């Protein structure tokens, strides 16, 4: 990682078409072969469209950040402020959800996921949130192990609809530490 110029910056409106392309390509490469093609295509047609991305980007509670490596788009994260989860009711709206952390295959193994997680924790800290949480597909064992190594613990589950295919996501949480 030391040999690369790595930065994180907010996604701008004119970058949304490229964000959509990177997101869709990464999602297809990582999950396409693991799902029924019909249901997978249904999900892509709903979740990975420019109008959908524009609506998500325009939501004042949504935050999108690029991770750049030597000036190239290497990945991104999408965060949702004040996104309550079943099982974290005691925190009310004082939570931050990590909805996506995607890294282009060319930039794997540079620690970009950890960098984006650190960005999410900084935002949660600045907002005085108590918890940060996410949902991860039960069959994504590599991601589950990584999140556990980063201090997350399972606290529940929910149904994620891949088209008409109901799948189980594990809900994982981590307390936000303050510098006080």
**Mean pLDDT figure:** 92
Tally of alpha and pi helices: 5
Adjacency order of strands in the biggest sheet: 1-2-3-4-5-7-6
Distance between the termini: 30 Å
Apparent shape:
globular
Helix content: 25-40%
CATH class, please? Alpha Beta
Give me the CATH superfamily: Gcn5-related N-acetyltransferase (GNAT)
CATH structural architecture: 3-Layer(aba) Sandwich
Hey, roughly how much beta strand do the residues contain? 25-35%
Largest sheet: 7 strands, mixed
Uncertain segments are none
**Order of helix and strand elements from N to C terminus:** EHHHEEEHEHEE
Question: In the residues, how many domains can be counted?
Answer: 1
SSE blueprint:
Layout lengths: L5 E5 L5 H16 L5 H11 L2 H9 L3 E8 L2 E10 L13 E9 L8 H15 L4 E7 L3 H9 L3 E10 L2 E11 L5
Parallel strand pairs: 4-5
Antiparallel strand pairs: 1-2, 2-3, 3-4, 5-7, 6-7
How do you describe this structure in short?
This protein is of the alpha+beta class and 180 residues long. It has five helices and seven strands, in the order βαααβββαβαββ.
Can you put this structure into words, describing what you see?
33% of the residues lie in helices and 33% in strands. The protein is of the alpha+beta class and 180 residues long. It has one domain: Gcn5-related N-acetyltransferase (GNAT) (Aminopeptidase), CATH 3.40.630. The protein has a 7-stranded mixed sheet, with helices on both faces. β2 (62-69) and β3 form a beta hairpin. The longest helix is centred in the N-terminal third of the chain and has 16 residues, at 16-31. The chain is globular.
